[in-house]
Design a protein that fits this description.
heterodimer, A: mainly alpha, 73% helix, disordered C terminus, B: mainly alpha, MetI-like fold, disordered N terminus
Chain lengths: 263, 310
């Protein structure tokens, strides 16, 4: 690329983009300060954070996120590892499965889960299993892409043989050899999953489980100002999660897996 | 014309670092152990992904009282509120994919090749990562605070032009408004995918073009743009699917004011609003069919794109 000064239209495009990025955030912040008439105050935040229901729903979302992350990371890391080690030929199939959340959007998957497991013979909807399962499916593309990219950077055959010759079991190999070697990749999948689950609305609201996303929506139908305060909290969560990924993924641009579907 | 085959080789040489040539041990005896290793994953996917999807497919052909019928599928193309829902969803997804794609491309060009400081590029890419993942309920409330009845932009316009927009019958809770909201996660995704593709354009290609007497315009028209085209189109297809499947953002932004397929499916879950379970399944099946088509096109374009772009 030749060194040249940016022409005016480049600056215009850039400024337009920044305006699109920041005006909604600025407006949300300004809006959240207007709860007390005629003056700016943090009253909306005080109200939001003094509601016990906020902590309950936020806590539930944390719980869903943790469960999703544990199940998804163990299953995806193990499967990606095993496929790389022993079953290269089915790799396209696994990849295809991890891309399925794109073909089956959240609302359609919820529909299928409710219709399938909302009645006997296999009644699961009274348990959070369909919810967590939905979240795990949703996390597949992010988790798999991150882990798969990470696996390509390490020599799993040598690692596995070394561990086996020292008498390690498969469990030991997975948790004490593969996981530590993939730390960066797994963390990037973990934080993306965290960001998605914490603000998720579709599964939680349609399966009737308490969560942060439906809570913001519910508050929104009752009050003004506080939902905007909570939206900024949610934005900060996304911002921190993505920043964490970029922090851990320094040096390799490929880390950020991008497949859509959580909107 | 003659330069293209030469570029093919230039583009592929040195791309593939062969994977370690360690063949797995002869596995005929241990084949079942190999399969056992991937069993949990496939069991999970079957139970929570394939069976629910397949049940939607089967039940789409179920008559109201039981029995086989094509009526539900036919109704997708004939029943007016369903056709309208599909039209609205397709329009919003198409428009935001196109506009998001074009604007995202321009942004990517601006930060990668526009001569802007490197810091700006880093910042924009980082923020695009955040924005493309900021969606759903919080995004909807952010835009309500921006351009809703008491939003910052709404109030600013009202003060500047001394208007009462609400009284003038102006509302943002329609498909135009929703498209503006969707753009918030659409164009950053385009930036994220397009920026590396633009950075992957090799200097040699441009120099080769210049040496052969090609101008900057020739380079873009005959070399850079054709190379980027599959990535550009593929990402737009991705953006399309991104918007088409969206439920949370639309629901939180406008409730059920906007007649979208995803909103209709959501309503069908909460209670059989169509009074026909089979039709509800067909509605969801239609969404899957459109998403699957988008996926196939995306994967195909991505394969073409990977020939050129690192």
């Amino acid at each position: 690329m030749k060194k040249k000064r940016a022409p005016i239209w480049v600056w215009l495009i850039f400024i337009l983009g920044m305006a699109y990025f920041f005006i909604p955030l600025l407006s949300t912040f300004e809006f959240s300060l207007r709860m007390v008439k005629g003056t700016y105050s943090f009253e909306a935040y005080r109200v939001a954070f003094s509601d016990p229901a906020f902590y309950k729903n936020f806590g539930y979302s944390l719980l869903w996120a943790m469960l999703t992350i544990i199940i998804s990371s163990v299953m995806v890391v193990w499967t990606a590892y095993w496929v790389q080690l022993r079953m290269r030929r089915i790799r396209p199939v696994v990849e295809f499965v991890t891309l399925m959340p794109f073909v089956v959007p959240a609302v359609v998957l919820t529909f299928g889960l409710v219709r399938m497991y909302g009645r006997p013979p296999l009644l699961l909807t009274p348990t959070p299993i369909p919810l967590i399962a939905g979240y795990v499916v949703l996390s597949f593309p992010y988790m798999y892409r991150a882990v798969d990219a990470g696996l390509r950077g390490i020599d799993i055959h040598t690692l596995t043989e070394a561990a086996q010759s020292l008498g390690a079991s498969w469990g030991t190999i997975l948790f004490r050899v593969i996981f530590p070697n993939l730390r960066g990749a797994i963390l990037s999948g973990v934080f993306l999953t965290f960001a998605i689950v914490m603000g998720e609305f579709t599964f939680a609201s349609l399966l009737y489980w308490p969560a942060f996303g439906p809570y913001i929506e519910e508050i929104g139908s009752m009050r003004a100002y506080t939902p905007q305060a909570l939206s900024l909290v949610s934005f900060m969560l996304t911002f921190l999660s993505i920043s964490a990924i970029q922090w851990f993924g320094r040096g390799s641009r490929e880390q950020q897996a991008q497949v859509a579907g959580a909107h | 014309m003659g330069e293209l085959p030469a570029l093919t080789t230039a583009g592929t040489v040195g791309e593939k670092k062969g994977e370690a040539p360690q063949a797995p041990p002869p596995a005929s005896r241990r084949a079942w152990i190999d399969w056992l290793g991937v069993l949990p994953f496939f069991l999970f996917a079957t139970m929570f992904l394939f069976i629910p999807s397949f049940s939607i497919f089967i039940r789409s052909f179920e008559k109201l009282g039981g029995g086989f019928t094509f009526d539900n599928i036919i109704a997708l193309f004939t029943k007016s509120d369903i056709v309208n829902a599909y039209k609205t969803s397709l329009t919003i997804s198409g428009v935001t994919a196109l506009l998001g794609g074009v604007f995202g491309f321009l942004m990517a060009y601006a930060i990668v090749m526009g001569g802007l400081p490197t810091r700006i590029r880093e910042f924009t890419l980082s923020f695009s990562g955040v924005a493309s993942n900021f969606a759903g309920v919080p995004l909807a409330f952010a835009f309500i605070a921006t351009m809703g009845n008491a939003g910052l932009i709404t109030r600013t316009i009202e003060t500047w032009f001394d208007l009462d927009l609400r009284q003038a019958g102006f509302s943002i809770y329609n498909s135009v408004g929703l498209s503006i909201v969707y753009m918030y996660f659409q164009f950053p995704l385009m930036i994220l995918i397009m920026a590396p593709a633009l950075a992957g354009l090799r200097r040699e290609w441009r120099e080769a073009c210049e040496n052969l007497g090609g101008s900057g315009g020739t380079y873009w028209r005959r070399i850079a743009f054709p190379i980027l085209m599959p990535t550009l189109l593929g990402t737009m297809v991705l953006l399309f699917g991104n918007a088409f499947g969206a439920y949370a953002t639309a629901y939180a932004f406008s409730g059920s004011f906007i007649n979208l397929v995803s909103i209709l499916v959501g309503a069908q879950i909460q209670g059989d609003v169509l009074y026909n379970p089979g039709l509800g399944n067909a509605l969801a099946l239609g969404m899957m069919a459109i998403m699957a088509t988008a996926m196939v096109i995306y994967l195909y374009l991505q394969r073409i794109a990977s020939r050129w772009v690192r």
